[in-house]
Design a protein that fits this description.
- This protein is mainly alpha-helical and 300 residues long.
- The protein has two domains: 95 residues, no CATH class; 166 residues, no CATH class.
- The chain is 72% helix and 0% strand.
- It is built from nine helices and no strands.
Length: 300
């Protein structure tokens, strides 16, 4: 329980820092200087105005100096990262419940948990950037994909080196080396295939409508998802993202009843990256169960 609370509080802090990044990155500003301030009146914030969630509640969502409204994005981002990181802390506690497990297994579980927390942070950041700016920056998606590939390759190294009791396995060095390269190759192929799905849809849409229907950033995001979740997990994320996007689009059609506005809205871009990131979070939490249930259903 203590670890879950600590991870949640740490997530709130990193969510607060993410809000700084999300406000400054699109403007090309430094996330280090100047210190946190109101973007309307430029007044520097006191320490108590930077407390995640609580400050927004105490201030009633407005700047203490000029009264400008502080958007809902700020508490929602902090809450999302805090809740997701708390779930990782809870999962780590469940994984490592046996106190007799050796230190090596705890290290492996700790590395896996840190990787999952980083993945969640990336998903929330990219989801908000795409929702607010229709922007999936390469300097987030590409390093994020490379980091996911590194974790995909390193995890089997721990699994090959240790069994669940922490004892050295008896695999030969030759098998160990070939297994690592095989994992890396399969991960790369999965990334290419996941990105290729989006590129294929992009090409078909161009042939039919003669306009861009989906951005290259979404293809890179799919590669990132495949690096972290594997190809099946990325396809689960894509399925959920597509369904969420369709529901949002239908909802907007219902709201926009005027024919002129409807025609104008039909050419408006929707943040597909946001929907894919939400699908990625769903896949990271329940992906294996969803894939297993689907395969069981497909047999009948």
């Amino acid at each position: 329980m203590g670890l879950t609370v600590f991870a949640g509080l740490l997530g709130l802090a990193f969510g607060s820092f993410m809000n700084v990044c999300l406000s400054r990155w699109p403007e090309g500003e430094s996330v280090v200087k100047p210190r946190s301030h109101c973007r309307d009146c430029e007044r520097s914030l006191s320490w108590w105005e930077n407390v995640p969630l609580l400050s927004w509640v105490v201030l009633r969502g407005r700047c203490r100096g000029c009264g400008t409204r502080i958007g809902w994005r700020y508490p929602l981002v902090e809450l999302a990262v805090g809740a997701l990181w708390a779930s990782v802390g809870w999962r780590f506690t469940a994984w490592s419940f046996d106190p007799d497990r050796p230190t090596s297994v705890w290290i492996y579980l700790g590395i896996s948990s840190v990787g999952l927390m980083l993945f969640y942070w990336l998903m929330v950041a990219l989801a908000v950037l795409d929702a607010e700016h229709l922007w999936l920056p390469d300097w987030l998606t590409l390093p994020g994909a490379a980091l996911g590939l590194a974790f995909a390759v390193l995890n089997p190294i721990w699994q090959v080196s240790l069994d669940l009791a922490g004892r050295p396995n008896t695999y030969s060095d030759e098998y160990f080396r070939s297994g690592v390269w095989k994992t890396a190759l399969l991960s790369l192929l999965g990334m290419v295939a996941a990105g290729g799905v989006v590129m294929l849809i992009r090409r078909v849409y161009w042939l039919v409508r003669r306009r861009e229907g989906i951005g290259l950033g979404d293809a890179k995001l799919m590669a990132l998802l495949a690096a972290w979740l594997g190809l099946p997990g990325a396809l689960v994320a894509f399925g959920f993202g597509t369904v969420i996007g369709a529901v949002v689009a239908l909802g907007l059609l219902v709201v926009v009843r005027d024919e002129a506005k409807t025609a104008s809205w039909a050419t408006t871009a929707l943040p597909m990256g946001t929907f894919l990131c939400i699908g990625g979070i769903v896949s990271a939490i329940w992906g294996p169960e969803i894939v297993t249930a689907y395969l069981r259903w497909a047999r009948f």
